[in-house]
Amino acid sequence: MNDSSPTVVGMIGGHGQIALRATRLLSAAGHRVLSVIRNPEHAADVELAGGEPVLLDLERTNGDELARALGAADTLVFAAGAGPGSGPERKETVDHQGALATMTAAAQLGARVVQISYIGVATTPPETMGVDFAAYQRAKYAADLALEASGLDWVIVRPGTLTNDAGTGRVTVGARLDRGPVSRDNVARVLAEIVARPKLRGLTVDILDGDTEIERAVANLGS
Ligand SMILES: NC(=O)c1ccc[n+]([C@@H]2O[C@H](COP(=O)([O-])OP(=O)(O)OC[C@H]3O[C@@H](n4cnc5c(N)ncnc54)[C@H](OP(=O)(O)O)[C@@H]3O)[C@@H](O)[C@H]2O)c1
């Protein structure tokens, strides 16, 4: 993958589709993954992926508790999300407040935050969307702005429309890409490469399926 030392990763939303893929990659590469999940029935899947389940509900915790539970972590990946079936309230409590709690924990731990957002979050006005999507946009954009202003080390990853296609191992990364598809496999591989490069920080990166081999695309972000 690259030449960095093993890290300890707090995977927030550890049973998510991208999170489980990233956990498999990170654990296979020798990193330790502490996977924050709210449903004890998800523990077996997390363990199968190589993660260590940490049972906490983002809507019933705070940054202090999260920091205590993830005490060894040097990188926190915010991969949680309220999901498409949820209304505005959960966009606020999970996508926004959950991200803020993650930042509070990161500040206490001295950890870097790698946060999943989405392409267009900063450019599509909420008034052009339905109620739920507008709430999602507001929550995700507020979380991104808070992270950028946090004083922490951070990387924001903004994928296009997620698919379950098999990963091609090739992406396009850039600052302001148009919308398009990207597989969860490819996003997970990009996250794993970013996690393993602690010097990457202060970057907001759009990602689509594309032509550049992922390791090279991520390595180029630092140059
Ligand atoms: N859909 C798209 O096209 C798209 C595009 C770009 C970016 N994104 C972003 O990418 C993120 C990750 O995508 P994905 O497909 O991996 O999402 P996902 O499978 O829905 O994963 C989200 C995870 O968050 C967890 N979660 C929700 N509420 C929680 C809580 N209160 N406490 C702890 N964990 C909680 C869920 O756990 P439970 O099973 O317990 O609910 C789930 O495991 C999305 O959330 C979204 O913000 C999506």
Outline the structure in words.
With 223 residues, the chain is α/β, with parallel strands linked by helices. The protein has a single domain (8-221), classed as 3-Layer(aba) Sandwich (Rossmann fold). It is built from 7 helices and 11 strands. The strands form 2 sheets. It has a 9-stranded mixed β-sheet with strand order 3-2-1-4-5-6-10-8-11, with helices on both faces. Strands 7-9 form a two-stranded parallel sheet. Helix 1 packs across helix 6 (184-195). The two termini are 17 Å apart. NADP nicotinamide-adenine-dinucleotide phosphate binds at residues 13, 15-19, 38-39, 57-59, 79-83, 94, 116, 118, 159, 161-162, 184.
List the helices and strands and how they pair.
Layout: E1 8-12, H1 17-28, E2 32-37, H2 43-48, E3 52-55, H3 63-69, E4 75-78, H4 88-109, E5 112-116, H5 131-148, E6 154-159, E7 161-163, E8 170-174, E9 181-183, H6 184-195, E10 203-209, E11 212-213, H7 214-221
Parallel strand pairs: 1-2, 1-4, 2-3, 4-5, 5-6, 6-10, 7-9
Antiparallel strand pairs: 8-10, 8-11
Helix pairs in contact: 1-6, 3-4, 4-5, 6-7
This protein binds NADP nicotinamide-adenine-dinucleotide phosphate (NAP).
NADP nicotinamide-adenine-dinucleotide phosphate is lined by residues 13, 15-19, 38-39, 57-59, 79-83, 94, 116, 118, 159, 161-162, 184.
